[in-house]
Amino acid sequence: MDAAFSAEQDEIRRTLRELITKRCGPDEVKAAVRTPSGHDPALWAALAERLGLPGLALPEAYGGVGCTAAELALACEELGRCLAPSPHLATAVLAAPVILALGTEEQRAAQLPRIAAGELTAALAVPGTGLATALGLVGDNAGDWAGGGRAGGVQARVRDGVWRLYGQAEQVLDGHSAGLLVVAAHAGGFARSRTLLFLVREGARGMARARQTSLDETRAQGRVELRDVEAELLGGDEVDVPGALAAIGDVAATVVAAEAVGAADRALERTLDHVRQREQFGRAIGSFQAVKHRLAEVYVQIEAARSAVYYAAWAAGASGAAGAEAAGGLALAQGLDALRAAASEAVQLHGGIGFTWEHDAHLYFKRASGDELLFGPAHRLRSRAAEQAGLFTAP
User: Which parts form a coiled-coil structure per UniProt (predicted)?
Assistant: First the structure.
């Protein structure tokens, strides 16, 4: 593994940091999350036009840039620093790779160039609270998380030669505003039980969507209700949905971990600035040894998590890399722990103002808690990684 970044990778980081520093400060973030879509469309358009961010990891044949998971992780680390509310995670990290992996050539050609250009946003709709399960992050995803033939979840059946969907999915990232939904549904009843994926376009008859209240407003979530909605089967009837989602889940975990590292790093920077200025007993509180020790421990956690993220990103594009099958989940566990530690110290060391919901420190605290609810918790991520690596399997 070469730990040095190329000039192109450094340029991606520099350009993105310049853009989001100008257009995505704390006040802009708070204003964007209160819009109906939950993000700033102008910022999303700028990210697409100047950097090609939505298509960064998509092949050039579909209008993408053709970069690897390493460049994607670097970009998302910068997005995490400012907690940028955008449809990037839902569109470019979850939905687009699913279409690329399982879609027919016609489906790829129809959807991916529009996604890469920033013209179309997309979302992966998974029933219930099973996103982490569907992606294979906290357990085997070959189970009945899509519905299992019982009431609840999303059911798919063929009527008059057309696939139709019934049910609902909650906590869908950007599900209330995405122009295209990739919906996981159970099909086949008990006789041929399986999970399939379907494309549902904005404005489909019988679909109702609403934004949900969420702890972390920077990750907008929506509820999607489907009542006899006509849908297009993604790929074929025999595609390996669990296998594809598990492969995508490893890269998604790496990306979310990169965002967590970026957020933790920025939270630590803000806390350091504060403790250098805030005084008690006639001296800056940052000069107290106890405060130094606490922040030093956070710094060590962040750097360890950053190393894990970079290795996971490299391993995602390297065949035969040691521990590659568990690298993304482990990086995410470390990233979530680092962000929670940095956010907690930020709240406490900012003193009385840090404990108010209006203070910026709580943006980072909510991101840490929200990501753990969506993709964790950390102990289950580690348990799954140990299972995949066979650490506790008898010889």
Answer: none
> Structure tokens of 18?
């310049």
Residues of the chain within CATH 2.40.110.10 domain(s) are 123-239
Where does 123-239 sit in CATH, by number? 2.40.110.10
Q: What whole-number distance in Å separates Cα of residue 40 and Cα of residue 81?
A: 17
Q: Which fold has domain 7-120?
A: Butyryl-Coa Dehydrogenase, subunit A; domain 1 (1.10.540)
**Which architecture does CATH list for 242-389?**
Up-down Bundle (1.20)
Contact assessment for residue 241 and residue 228, using Cβ atoms and an 8 Å cutoff: no
| Domain span(s) for CATH 1.10.540.10 in the chain | 7-120
Confidence of residue 319 (pLDDT cuts 50, 70, 90): low
According to CATH, where is 1.20.140.10 located in the chain?
Answer: 242-389
- Measured CA to CA, the distance from residue 212 to residue 336 in angstroms comes to 23
pTM beyond 0.90: yes
Length of the chain: 395
Cis preceding linkage at 377, omega within 30: yes
pLDDT number for residue 111? 97
pLDDT band at 65 (very low <50, low <70, confident <90, very high): very high
Task: Return left, alpha or beta for 38; rule: phi > 0 is left, psi -120 to 50 is alpha, else beta.
Answer: left
- Residue ranges of alpha helices (H) inside the chain are 7-23, 26-33, 41-46, 69-81, 88, 96-102, 105-116, 131-134, 241-277, 289-316, 324-349, 361-375, 378-389
- Which residue, among 58, 51, 57, has the nearest Cα to 69 in the 3D structure? 57
Between CA 189 and CA 187 the distance in angstroms is 6
Q: What pLDDT score was predicted for residue 237?
A: 83
Contact assessment for residue 173 and residue 124, using Cβ atoms and an 8 Å cutoff: yes
pLDDT, tens digit (0-9, with 9 covering 90-100), for 328-363: 999 999 999 999 999 999 999 998 787 787 788 899
Place of tokens 């605290």: 365
Please choose, from the candidates 252, 251, 265, the residue with its C-alpha nearest in 3D space to the C-alpha of residue 338: 265
